[in-house]
Amino acid sequence: MAYQNNFRKKSNKYSKDKENFKSTEKYSNYRNNKNKNKNQDMHKNEQRSKKWNEKKEYKWNEKRNEIISIKFPNTYIKIKRKGVDIFTKNLVPGQSFFGETVIRKKIDNENIELRQWDYTRSKLGAAIFLKVSQLGISEGDKVLYLGASHGFTPSYVSDIVGSKGFVFCLDFAPRVVRDLYLLCQKRNNMAPIIADANKPEQYEELLPEVDVIFMDIAQREQVEIFLKNFKFLKKEGFAILALKARSVDVTKKPKHVFRVAREELEKHTMIVDYKELDPVEKDHCIFVCKNK
Amino acid sequence: MIKDFDKNKEKYRKKCFEFTAERLRESVNQDNFIVQAISEINELDKVINMLSRRLNEYAGLYVPELYERINDNETYARIIATKTRKQILKDLKLDKSIGYDLKEKDKESIIELANQIISLFQQKSKVKNYLESLLKKYVPNIYYILGTMLTAKLLAQAGSLKSLSLFPASTVQMLGAETALFRHLKTGAKCPKYGFLFLHPLVANAAPRKRGKAARMLADKVAIAAKVDYFKGDFVADKLLMQLENKLKI
Questions:
Q1: Is B193 a domain residue?
Q2: Widest CA span of chain B, in angstroms?
């Protein structure tokens, strides 16, 4: 017992000393210098990784561990302790096409089947994960999807627009369209088109006036092709461009490429939102435009 | 543009499907067969190497001395599939072996594995013959200069004969060295001198200092031959190769 008492007394003394020391000028000087040196010594890579981590721990203020609907139609999120799951309401219940998990839930007295959306595989999903302000896609819209590939993202877009809407999926490579064709047969609101997005004359007969255009192709003249397809868009319709900096120019920095693209887009359209998809997709950004 | 889409949705959807189906059918051509065949050969090579390493470990239990004498995987598998332990030891002129005398039951799976490897080798040679016959008809000029495997590799990397014929000679020279080339463009490291073309004996056997020069000349001739093949001109490859060999001798 005697030993314990002694120990307590000592520790009290020590803490008092520490508090006294903290209040002095010496301590504050020492502290400031330490922080200054830290910032100077930090290597560039470390600074970059710090930024990366900040974005990764993106904070959502909603309730945790509950499935909540968000402002985009037919989309739901579930906030976990680490990260976020994004879901869409499945248009074809009982089927998952890419091995994604399917959940059945009762929301607002309705039994709904939800399909999980892996946002690391899709640029549109990444934009939703990073809290893009608006996409312009609403229920019942007709969407023209350029660069559909295997049809991963288009299948979610068709979920969002619902059974009244329609998605035209366009791609150029025959191998990829083979998969897309089989997917579109199973979903009533999708149709495949094999054509070059650079030549809109070739598929003019197949398309009506659309409400939304989404483009995700890795070409050098991405912005020009994007603007060429504006002739299918209705007045005040939305158009979304996922830009890949590396395929425009490898030697230049991504930010420079984005700035040049932005200047060119602003001549013809109105940019509503702009987001860099950095932690999820490297050297990518997304533009949400509105037709004048 | 369609104006009454909302009324006849199903009709226009069907039209899209027909449009793509027709184009998909048309898109298959000779290039696809060549690309598939060369990638099949590459994958067969991988499987054969993996399985024959297993066979060496397995059969090494009873004839460990055999693999030292024979380095060819095919003949090794043949010997093990056909001959008994005593015969093998006789051929090697050994009285005693460090291997263990296995029972008949244990040998069965080893012999089955050896037979499997032999059949894989047979399939590989079949595919190679098929590829050769394809290339002789489709790209006679490039085939004469480069041989089977190199031609197929170049075509697979370019994607199709059309795109290969549209490449300049400098791009043909760099095919197969993409990572090194982009590293050079990005960071300013050394520029690569050759890609797949290094497999050609004229480049590989040249003196180290002249290899870049040889690759450049070879790429020139290949680019010419590709253009002749795509637009279906006469056979000029023998002249091209003669010019090349004469230049490289000096």
A1: yes
A2: 91
Q: CB pairs below 8 Å between A and B: how many? A: 55
Does pLDDT of A45 surpass 80? no
Q: Are residues B149 and B131 in the same domain?
A: no
**Six token digits for residue B151:** 């031609």
Q: Is residue B72 part of a domain?
A: yes
Q: Where among B138, B171, B204 does a domain terminate?
A: B138
Task: Specify the CATH number for A119-290; select among 3.40.50.150, 3.40.50.970, 3.40.50.980, 3.40.190.10.
Answer: 3.40.50.150
As a whole number, mean pLDDT of residues B222-249 equals: 93
| High-pLDDT (> 90) share of chain A, % | 59
Q: Determine the pLDDT at residue A26.
A: 72
A201–chain B Cβ distance below 8 A for any pair: no
Q: Are residues B170 and B120 in the same domain?
A: no
The residue in chain A having the minimum alpha-carbon distance to the alpha carbon of residue B27 is A174
My answer on whether B225 and B177 are in the same domain is: yes
What is the full DSSP assignment across B43-104?
A: HHHHHHHHHHHHHHHHHTTT-TTHHHH---HHHHHHHHHH--HHHHHHHHT-S--SS----H
List of chain A residues whose C-beta atoms are within 8 Å of the C-beta of residue B23 = 174, 194
Residue of A nearest to B12 (CA): A206
Stretch 120-149 of chain A: residues touching chain B, C-beta under 8 Å: 142
SS3 percent helix, strand, coil of chain A, rounded to 5, is: 40, 25, 35
The chain B residue lying nearest A165, using CA atoms, is B6
What is the rounded CA–CA span in Å between residue B64 and residue B162? 52
Give per-residue pLDDT as tens, B48-104: 999 999 999 999 888 888 888 888 999 999 999 999 888 988 988 888 888 888 888
pLDDT of residue B10: 92
Residue B160: list chain A partners with CB under 8 A.
none
Cα A193 to Cα A172: distance, rounded to the nearest angstrom: 8
Residue B245, pLDDT > 60, answer yes
Does some domain include residue B53? Answer: yes
Residue type, B17: F
Strand partners, A188: none
pLDDT at A2: 46
Chain A residue numbers touching B16 (CB-CB < 8 A): 168, 191-193, 206
**Band (B1; pLDDT cuts 50, 70, 90):** confident
Task: Write out the residue range of the structural domain in which residue B117 sits.
Answer: 30-138
Helix (H) or strand (E) holding A75: strand A75-79
Out of A191, A208, A251, closest to residue B17 by CB: A191
Is B206 part of any domain? yes
Number of alpha carbons in the 13 Å side-chain half-sphere of residue B75:
8
- Beta carbons of B24 and A177 less than 8 Å apart: yes
Read off the pLDDT of residues A204-215 as tens digits, 9 standing for 90 and up.
999 999 999 999
Q: Do B5 and A232 touch (CB under 8 A)?
A: no
Query: Distance, in angstroms, between B145 CA and closest chain A CA?
Result: 31
Number of compact structural domains in chain B: 2
Tell me: do B171 and B220 sit in the same domain. Answer: yes
